[in-house]
Automatic annotation (TrEMBL):
Organism of provenance: Caballeronia mineralivorans PML1(12)
InterPro entries linked to this entry: DUF4072, HAD-like_SerB, HAD-like_sf, HAD_sf, PSP
Family recorded in the similarity comment: Belongs to the HAD-like hydrolase superfamily. SerB family.
Catalytic activity as recorded in UniProt: O-phospho-D-serine + H2O = D-serine + phosphate; O-phospho-L-serine + H2O = L-serine + phosphate
Pathway annotation: Amino-acid biosynthesis; L-serine biosynthesis; L-serine from 3-phospho-D-glycerate: step 3/3
Annotated protein name in UniProt: Phosphoserine phosphatase
Taxonomic lineage of the native organism: Bacteria, Pseudomonadati, Pseudomonadota, Betaproteobacteria, Burkholderiales
Length: 281
């Protein structure tokens, strides 16, 4: 295996020997002009615990990667939206417009950590608190608060250039996924629909709730539509409701994720942006 080390800052030479020794690497080389990526060749994957401890202490991201693997070997990149493709949790920001952000955010956080097992119940409880809010709050959240995660556009451009299709699948809302689809040129989206009557939120979600099972099914169905095996997909997420989708994929990426997701994923990007995915290959 190869071991790819990444950082937001240039990686100091002083890290190279300790990393090589810990990974039992046969060769170490810098992989980018800015000095933010180091590739160690012929490493021992059983050294992961030592690498994890060292990299965590020095704010470095790492990934064990098959040296024969290419980005173009994949056909789809599937992404969660809230706190993955974008920096916010949309429902928390919507709730801020009716003075309930803290209450809603607490439920969101517990759900993403895996402490609330029933995502449907969690979402239903949160959406119910939004009843009566003017629907114009959604547009304000999009315009005033929604920001793409670092490296998102670079990652998407690189994936598209390598021939991958893009899927945004979210336990959030279609209001935001459809705007992002148009803005970023995404191929597929799936999310929940907020019911709006007379310009106000009713506190209900219409249709099937996009929970962990639906996310995984959407990935499988999209792969089937593309004529590829789900193992030829990359799935990225941050919360427990992304785990089943990530388990279907050939490469699972935990992005600024909760501990339960970092532990289950093939690799974690804790410090660098989403474009760190491109530098793995």
């Amino acid at each position: 295996m190869n071991l790819v080390i990444q950082s937001l800052e240039p990686i100091a030479d002083s890290h190279l020997k300790p990393l090589a020794a810990l990974a039992r690497s046969q060769q170490t080389k810098r992989a980018d002009p800015a000095g933010q990526v180091v590739r160690l060749l012929g490493v021992d994957p059983l050294q992961r615990p030592d690498i994890d401890a060292y990299c965590g202490a020095h704010r470095l991201d790492y990934a064990f990667i098959d040296p024969a693997l290419r980005l173009s070997d994949f056909g789809l990149v599937a992404m969660d939206m809230d706190s993955t493709l974008i920096t916010i949790e949309c429902i928390d920001e919507i709730a801020d417009f009716c003075g309930l952000k803290a209450e809603v955010a607490a439920i969101t956080e517990a759900s993403m950590r895996g402490e609330i097992n029933d995502f449907n119940e969690s979402l239903t409880r949160r959406v119910a608190l939004l009843k009566g809010l003017d629907a114009s709050a959604l547009e304000r959240v999009y315009e005033e608060r929604l920001r793409l995660s670092s490296g998102a556009e670079t990652m998407l451009a690189g994936a598209k250039a390598a021939g991958l299709k893009t899927l945004l699948v979210s336990g959030g809302f279609t209001f935001f996924t459809e705007k992002l689809k148009a803005r970023l040129g995404l191929d597929f989206t799936r999310a929940n629909t907020l019911e709006i009557v007379d310009g106000k939120l009713t506190g209900n979600v219409t249709g099937e709730i996009v929970n962990a099972d639906v996310k995984a099914r959407t990935l499988r169905e999209t792969c089937a539509q593309l004529g590829i095996d789900p193992r030829r997909s990359i799935a990225m997420g941050d919360g427990s409701n992304d785990l089943k989708m990530m388990a279907e994929a050939g490469l699972s990426v935990a992005f600024r994720a909760k501990p339960v997701v970092r532990e289950a994923a093939g690799l974690a990007l804790n410090f660098v942006g989403l474009d760190g995915v491109l530098r793995l290959f």
